[in-house]
Specification:
28% of the residues lie in helices and 25% in strands. The chain has 251 residues and is an alpha/beta fold.
Length: 251
């Protein structure tokens, strides 16, 4: 039976059928102040385990909502593609936009990277706060788009160090977007969807020659996705849409 027109909220803990739970403060505040929920309203909760849980509100306190879990439904709307985005760190608004939209488009993992020409740097004491913000943006996007699994978002790392140390590249399709590239996706062989696709997007000032050479040395294929130069916040959304259409679940 299809569940329609129900408000959907993230719950960070285990959810069990026929048990009641209290929604966390953030979700409760949103449900009470924005969605104006009431006793006996039916809502959907998810915790990232791949299922939606239908529940009924049985108790409302000042800032707390108690929900009785009625049923569980496995959600099968994850992309058949596993795509990891290596995104050059950019301004707050742009980074928020990238995380929101790539979550909607089915991204698996997001690894922010700091490039030589990155304008934005994050102080060590601000990293945890920034990660929490990005994760919350991704969770909100999951609430809206119906995903029941939440993309992994990692702490920012220096691009060159990440490329030198990381071993996930072996056997996977690796592409780097460059406006000077001579090839496009049609020139690349994608063997099967069990491969992870790793997409590297540069900063506003583009990669340095050294960074580009290192990525190519590590097996990244330099491609362009059209005759126009895309902004750093436009590029990931464009390439994800193309990859999902070409190999994934956008038809």
């Amino acid at each position: 039976k299809k569940i329609i027109n129900m408000h959907r909220f993230y719950h960070p803990n285990t959810i069990n059928i026929n048990e009641s739970l209290f929604m966390d403060n953030l979700s409760s505040h949103h449900a009470l102040k924005v969605m104006r929920v009431k006793i006996n309203d039916q809502i959907i909760l998810f915790n990232g385990d791949g299922s939606d849980y239908q529940g009924k509100i049985i108790n409302l306190k000042k800032n707390q909502i108690e929900v009785l879990i009625i049923s569980k439904k496995v959600i099968n709307n994850e992309s058949n593609l596993k795509i990891r985005l290596l995104q050059a760190l950019t301004s707050n608004d742009k980074m928020d936009w990238i995380i929101q939209k790539t979550t909607e488009l089915g991204i698996s993992e997001i690894q922010p990277v700091i490039c030589d020409r990155s304008i934005i740097k994050i102080k060590d004491n601000k990293t945890e706060k920034k990660l929490m913000r990005w994760r919350q943006i991704s969770i909100s996007a999951c609430e809206q788009c119906g995903r029941a699994k939440i993309p992994l978002i990692h702490s920012p790392q220096d691009l060159s160090s990440y490329l030198e140390k990381n071993r996930v590249f072996k056997g996977n399709l690796k592409i780097i977007l460059s406006p000077d590239a001579k090839k496009n996706l049609n020139d690349i062989e994608f063997i099967n969807t069990k491969q992870e696709i790793i997409v590297l997007i540069g900063p506003e000032g583009d990669f340095t020659k050294k960074e580009l050479e290192l990525a190519i040395k590590k097996g990244f294929l330099s491609i362009q996705i059209g005759p126009r130069i895309l902004r750093t916040e436009t590029a990931p959304i464009s390439i994800l849409s193309i990859l999902q259409y070409k190999y994934g679940d956008i038809v």
